[in-house]
Design brief:
91 residues, alpha+beta, YefM-like fold, 16% strand, elongated
């Protein structure tokens, strides 16, 4: 992964953006030798966001199916009020 100092980015912003847009590789912007930001081309960002969304949805649906199976098997608990549920979740 390429890196660039923030001072160099200021001086060559147009060239840096052209380089990032032409590449699928993100660029790390360094400020005081620490990562301050990532620059990613729009297609890569949108692809990564869509993939992350799909993964989150898959995980959510898996957890719902597991909860439904637990409930169907009689493995779920009931609570008289929300305070008892919250106490149980905190423990």
């Amino acid at each position: 992964m390429k890196t660039i100092a923030i001072s160099e980015l200021r001086q060559h912003a147009a060239d840096v953006l052209a380089d990032v847009q032409a590449s699928d590789e993100p660029m790390v912007v360094l400020q005081r030798s620490r990562r301050a930001a990532y620059i990613v081309n729009p297609e890569r960002y949108e692809h990564d966001q869509a993939e992350l969304s799909a993964l989150r949805r898959t995980l959510f649906l898996t957890e719902v199916r597991e909860a439904e199976a637990e409930y169907a098997a009689g493995g779920s608990r009931t609570f008289d009020d929300i305070e008892h549920l919250i106490d149980e979740l905190k423990a």
